[in-house]
Amino acid sequence: MKLQGTKASLGLALSGVLLLAACTSPEATDSSAAGDASATATESMSEEMAGDAGSTCLQDVGITETQDGEVRYTAGPVDWSGYNSITADTYSTYNSVIAAHMFGSFVYFGTDGTICDNTEFGTYEVLSEDPLTVRYTIADDAAWSDGTPVTINDYLMDWAAQNPEFVAPGYASGEDPEASPVFNHVSTSLAQYVLEGPEGELGSKEFTITYTDPNPDYKINVTTALPEHVIAEQSGLEPGALAQAVLDRDADTVTSAADFWNEGWIFNPGELPDSSLMPSSGPYMVKEGGWQAGNSLTLTANDSYWGTPAGTRDLVFRFIDEAQQVQALGNSDVQVIQPQATVDTVGQLEALGSAVSMESGSSLTWEHLDFNHRENNVFGDPETGLTLREAFAYCVPRQQIVDTLIAPMAPDTVVMNAREVFPFQTEKYEEVTSASYDGRYDQVDIDMATQLVEESGVATPIEVRIGYGAGNQRRAETVAAIQASCGDAGFDVIDSSSDTFFSEELGNGDYEIALFAWAGSGQITSGENIYGTNKGQNFGAYSNETVDEAWATLVATLDEDVHLEQTKIIEKELWDTLFGIPLYAHPSIVAFDSTLSNVRATATQDQVSWNAPQWVAE
Amino acid sequence: MLKFIAKRLGISLAILVLGSLLLYVLVINSGDPLEDLRESNDPNRENRIRQRIENMGLNQPWYERYWDWLTGASKCLVGQCDLGTAVNGQSVNALVATAAASTLRLVVIASLAAIVIGVALGIITAIRQYSGFDYGVTLMAFMFFSLPVFWLGVLLKHYAAIEFNNWIVDAEFSWAVILGIAAVLAIVLQAAMGGDLKRRGITAGAMFGGVVAILFYFDMVTWFRHPALGIPVYILSVIGVAVLVIVMTSGFHNHRVRNAVAATAVVAIIGYVATRGFLMQGGSILLLLLLLVVAIGVAVAAGQLLGGFSRRQATFASIITSVLASLLAMADLLLSNWSQYLSEQPRPIPTIGSATPNYESTFWMMTIDALTHLVLPTVALMLISVASYTRYTRASMLDVLNQDYIRTARSKGISERKVITRHALRNSLIPLATIVAFDFAGLIGGAVITETVFGWQGMGNLFRTGLAAVDPAPVMAFYLVTGTAAVIMNMLADIAYAILDPRIAR
User: What is the ipTM of this complex?
Assistant: First the structure.
């Protein structure tokens, strides 16, 4: 999960000029393009995403062999920085979308965030719930593109690279704040929760993972691994020797691989090493000579891939700034884009005519207003706070905000009435909202709000500072809409955007209401950190026993029915005590060359290229 | 002089070091390097924050971080720069090298073209002061100067890339377009040539007719899909160039210069006719440079042998002729390969990037590919800097034309051409030396917006992304390169000034 707010505002602040470009370009394109172009083929992805969970995973599109040619995509302006995209330095969306096709994984995210199994790569089953033990079986024919089988060795190395106790004492557990990591790995979760590491024989296709605590998110803890044999060879060892050293808890040998692991796979711009250094366990691999610094990176089909082959031979990633993507698509410099969803972008894309198809939909990022529950705050007052929060909820024009700010680019967007589930996860959403929310804040009710404010006895006008990261136009307009509506109820709403909102005001509680967005990652338990008493992401100092208990029950089991039940309890309590007010899921736009088939938008952060191996030109 | 240079260098170095301290402190205080992670709800969040603090040295006091950078950077003095690592783990040395190469490729052609065109326009407008042409150019200069480059970029992409690529499929002109282009060119040319009404009318009429005929011809043979100059047109063009050079330098009556230039032109024509077939097969940058050196060698020889008393002028004119003839030959070779390129890349002008990914072809195809990627950003950069060069040259030229020695020269009965080329032009270019030097120093800093709009990851981009991530290493590397360039160029400008204008040295 990530707060998208500042990222967007940072982008705005830094390239304000460039965003202006997006506003002005219709002047340039409209006159000539609109005349001869028929309307852009537009479809809605919400229909597609409805239905049972299975349909949100990859579907069989009948690809049996790779066809020659290339498809070109851009994920953004940032250049590729190397084969190892899980160092703390190189970990980024831009690198991840590329790595996703070079490394096989047991699981992947479906279009609505569902965790799907990749049985071509391997399978897993829960052997016991207490302690949580999971057995992983890698497919027999799963092998790196250089022929070395994918085995437990790779996963042993991955575990060791997360700095477990024997490698970096006290680091992963956090017991020793002075401890420094040996490997520059982005994650420590396996080292933290799986003390014994993957268990199994050296070179085996099977291993088990035993967790110290129950972990509902176990599915996304073991996913991909880097090739152990390459790390070993580059560190002057025999293939397998590193895995053996991990089994033997031989810290010195394992540590000797750190130099290569940390830096060996970060390349100078445009300089690719020998391809034997970058084997692939996925449908694509880095094409030889396929990296032009700052311009493009090309992946080419991995001919020795054992599973469904890539649809098109070459997959080209161009590095193009958001504001320039539509014109690049119009000129066929790229064939698929996922630009920032703005009204201007939609207009420009529509002007491109039927040669370009556009899908608009929602992403897993959602916008919300969070109250400040600190006791010295007007909304956190133990006596009158709840009444005022209710009054405020009655006057926030949620429907109007969605209709004016979001619907023009994503017509199917609805007001969001939940926090842990999204409207496009239809069934689950219906079930959760019907149990937790009675629809009382759907319509603005100024009389009710005024009455509640009077009831609270707090002198009006009540000053309400809505804080958000500066430079975000949509949020400014949201605040303006609230200002207009809530003013009548006795609230003096103040737009208090700030450059330092996320680093200072939000943490210090220097606001009445915080306006920002969370980006969902498909994790089940991440909400505990937001709504639990004294948790790291609970910026508004909210505290509620029922919620805490429900989270405790939720994280202690793998039972999905229990998860759903507890989610209902949590959502209901969050509505009843008004933790905050959810607004809408962020819109997202995908546009592509109409001659491409199987391009499918996703709500997750994996971007539309999540199923790029299925893209084929007609 | 040496003492002067040493003193200047010493002061400059001190300024660079002080500036680096200031910039370093400003950069690391310009924001929160952990901002993106602070707001993350990733399960890895804590770990990522710890790792980044460790890798960026955020737990060290600022002076230690600065000292670390300074010791690494000071190794540049012994040729072993260590500019640190960027926040994404890449070596800044490598990043700067690629960024600088990319920026240089982007800006060199644009600046050279801007200087040539800007100076030429400046001189013509000064000579035709207060004419329609002067007003027209002044208007255009102000317009282009104030055009926001991102907007210009969007316009160019739409009309010169997307629409052009749609058009090139058939490459057909409508009559309206032909007549329109011809009319515009006719009006511009008559305004530039000047003269009385009759002369202007003849100029405009000839231009109009000529352009209509040429465009009609181009349309009929779809020339834009199969262009070529061909040997006959090449020969005519080289003769034209030679005549122009002679007129601009000495005039026809100086037979020494005339013979030298004519000899150069003849050798150029024979040389190109002989090597064209071979060059069409393929080439390399090395081969082309070698040929250019040979061409200049021939020109120098012709100037020295035939120049006689006017040796210097003859050599100079011959070199100009020979370089222009080489450029014409290059243009002919590129044009002749254009149709082949079109068949390989049906949409030739890209809106973005520096090369077509994975494009493998002959040398000429690759050269055309590089040029098609350069054309839009070059035009955007050029239109804007042409404006300032035009204005500077015009002002400087007018200044010189009002000097006493010009009046004296005129009263001596020297022809107006000589007055302008020999007395006015040269002296008016002296102040430009400073501006050009400064501009070149600024160029290496990249063109932040142009780079972003056209997807070139050059120096400007390095600076921008470094600053956005509150990552001092790339920003300081940018400072080091641009600062050093500014210091060196500034000094070169001073020295050049002293050489060009002996009054300064005294």
Answer: 0.87
